[in-house]
Amino acid sequence: MKSIEVVAAVIRREERIFATQRGYGDFKDWWEFPGGKMEPGETPEAALEREIREELSAEISIGRLLRTVEWDYPAFHLTLHCYLCTLSSECLHLNEHEAARWLDAGSLDSVRWLPADEELIPLIREELTPSQV
Predict the structure, then answer these.
(1) What percentage of the chain exceeds 70 in pLDDT?
(2) Which of 34, 85, 119, 129 has its CA 20 to 30 A from that of 69?
(3) Whose CA is closest to 33, among 90, 111, 106, 128?
(4) Which residues face 71 on adjacent strands?
């Protein structure tokens, strides 16, 4: 089975995260975190900065690795490195996606996530929900 290694940005602004809707391929109209394939010799961080510039015409500040998801799709195995990020500026432009939304903890289930991205939703919900001390 073919293996693909990709990166994704879980972009946070206050108590919301940024989600994008795919406009092409087998999973057209499903939702994902923006990002894409790593190129040979590229670090995950460099790949993520490049992908976000290409997809959103935006600059990000990359925080910690949230999780690496291993997922078997019918045609390939995916290794998905997901980083918590913030925008370095407020400017975003959808160059590849059909739509985008800022989702809070209560609206994370309002979109149809790609299966690998959906694995992150419980972790993201924890990140967005203030802890009870």
Answers:
(1) 98
(2) 129
(3) 111
(4) 78
First to last CA, the chain: 46
Q: Residues with Cβ < 8 Å from 111, sequence gap 6 or more?
A: 19, 21, 31, 101, 103
CA angle 40, 43, 46 (to 5 degrees): 105
> Residue 122: what are its φ and ψ, rounded to 5°?
-60, -40
Instruction: Please provide the size of the chain in residues.
Output: 133
Alpha-carbon separation of residue 66 from 5, 94, 96, 99, 111 (angstroms): 16, 24, 24, 24, 20
What architecture does CATH give domain 2-128? Answer: Alpha-Beta Complex (3.90)
Helix (H, G, I), strand (E, B) or coil at 18: strand
Residue carrying the six token digits 């001390």: 133
Strands (E), the chain: 2-13, 16-22, 31-32, 35-37, 60-72, 76-87, 97-104
